[in-house]
Automatic annotation (TrEMBL):
<comment type="similarity">
    <text>Belongs to the THEM6 family.</text>
</comment>
<keyword id="KW-1133">Transmembrane helix</keyword>
<feature type="transmembrane region" description="Helical">
    <location>
        <begin position="12"/>
        <end position="33"/>
    </location>
</feature>
<keyword id="KW-0812">Transmembrane</keyword>
<dbReference type="InterPro" id="IPR051490">
    <property type="entry name" value="THEM6_lcsJ_thioesterase"/>
</dbReference>
<protein>
    <recommendedName>
        <fullName>Protein THEM6</fullName>
    </recommendedName>
</protein>
<keyword id="KW-0472">Membrane</keyword>
<dbReference type="Pfam" id="PF13279">
    <property type="entry name" value="4HBT_2"/>
</dbReference>
<dbReference type="InterPro" id="IPR029069">
    <property type="entry name" value="HotDog_dom_sf"/>
</dbReference>
Length: 212
């Protein structure tokens, strides 16, 4: 059997390292690895039949998450992404979206920070679908400290549905018409703000005049 010259082995190693370096420079590799791990874990967990049920993921603030010894503001939104992946996997929304050949995108988010999560502090990320309209699901996600139970941050997310609707997704899952829960007052205020902002931006760009 012919032996591979050491010089050729070294070149292969250098090529692999160069490719990995290019990937880490151009793509957020850790995000996709974490997302894959979260989805895989949710795949093997028991399904949640109540679509509006709250689901909980646990976490801890690591040195990778912090600035100035507390969790970076942007990290909260990143963790919420992963929690929604798990939520949709376990309650069947992802499966229904694929079956209907639809897709979902984040249309809007708002987050309120109440107290910093410090390095080493554990937390629960509690996610649930609050309600929906004809175009989007509306979710609430809470960061609750395991130290004292305080809600350290709360986020609302508008998950827009493309090429389908929340009603069709839920009918596909439940095999029946699902009654839409009422909008809580604070969530309704935020939805009104989104609508007003959209109308103002359309008017600013001249879209309102073009549609008349």
């Amino acid at each position: 059997m012919e032996e591979v010259p050491p010089e050729r082995e070294m070149w292969w190693v250098l090529w692999v390292l160069a490719i990995l370096l290019a990937l880490f420079c151009m793509v957020d590799v850790w995000y996709f690895l974490r997302a894959a791990a979260v989805i895989l874990r949710a795949w093997f967990q028991p399904p949640v039949w109540d679509v509006t049920a709250e689901q909980v993921l646990t976490g801890r603030v690591t040195p990778h998450d912090i600035d100035m010894c507390h969790m970076n503001n942007a990290r909260y939104l990143r963790e919420c992404d992963f929690a929604r992946f798990s939520l949709y996997m376990r309650n069947g929304v992802f499966k229904a979206v694929r079956a209907l050949r639809a897709s979902m995108v984040v249309g809007a988010t708002t987050i309120r920070y109440r107290r910093a999560l410090c390095i080493g502090e554990g937390y629960e990320l509690r996610s649930r679908i609050v309600t929906w309209d004809d175009k989007a699901f509306f979710l609430e996600q809470r960061f609750v400290s395991t130290k004292d139970g305080l809600v350290c941050a709360v986020m609302y997310c508008k998950q827009s549905v493309i090429r389908s609707s929340p009603d069709k997704i839920l009918q596909h899952l439940c095999k029946r018409k699902v009654e839409c829960p009422e909008f809580p007052e604070d969530l309704q205020h935020w939805v009104n703000f989104i609508s007003a902002s959209s109308q103002a931006l359309r008017a600013e760009s001249g879209l309102e005049e073009k549609n008349k």
